[in-house]
Amino acid sequence: MSPHRSLCAGQAAVDYLLVLALVALALSIGADSPIQRLVEAIAEHYRRFTWAISLP
């Protein structure tokens, strides 16, 4: 294996990590972001679940 090939071996992982970070950033910015709506939906369902199991 040549030295140049070993230096480039991790380049794809860095590229994928950068793209994943940009996608996560795009989903989390804004007042009504998809991530915020997901967290709110999970919290609402958890509140309903705990209410339902607290019934006699």
Description:
This protein is mostly helical. 80% of the residues lie in helices and 0% in strands. The chain has helices at residues 3-8, 11-28, 34-54. The termini are far apart. The mean pLDDT is 86.
Question: What are the salient characteristics of this protein?
Answer:
mainly alpha; 56 residues
Overall pLDDT metric: 86
Low-confidence stretches: none
How does the major sheet shape up?
Answer: none
Order of helices and strands: HHH
Helicity level:
over 70%
Task: Give a concise summary.
The chain is an all-alpha fold and 56 residues long. Helix content is 80%, strand content 0%. The protein has 3 helices and no strands.
Topology:
Blueprint: H1 3-8, H2 11-28, H3 34-54
